[in-house]
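**Archive record**
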Amino acid sequence: MSDLLEYQGYFGSVHYSKEDDVLHGRLEFIRDLVTYEAQDVLGLKLAFQESVDDYLQFCQDQGRSPDTPLKGSFNVRPGRELHKRAALCAKRQGISLNAVVVNALRQSLEADIQSSDQLA
């Protein structure tokens, strides 16, 4: 089950408001706030797609670039000790600190996928 919609490289959340009896969401992984809502699932999917299209058109009309989700870089704040250990590991292996982080992230995500597959 997925709580995300995808359209034109943008991702949108799916939530239910018991108080308002509506489905709603927002574009995820961007700084701009773009929201949508509907009464049913099909309506939410359409509202999400319209929100993406409207957002892209708005940015074009304003002459600015839209935020791009998941650009391929992010800041990591591991704390002093973990930073030191990672830097020393990189030095010993003769690779960049970035490569150490990417390798660790890849291994962690592969392990997560394997454990998810075992649960299914």
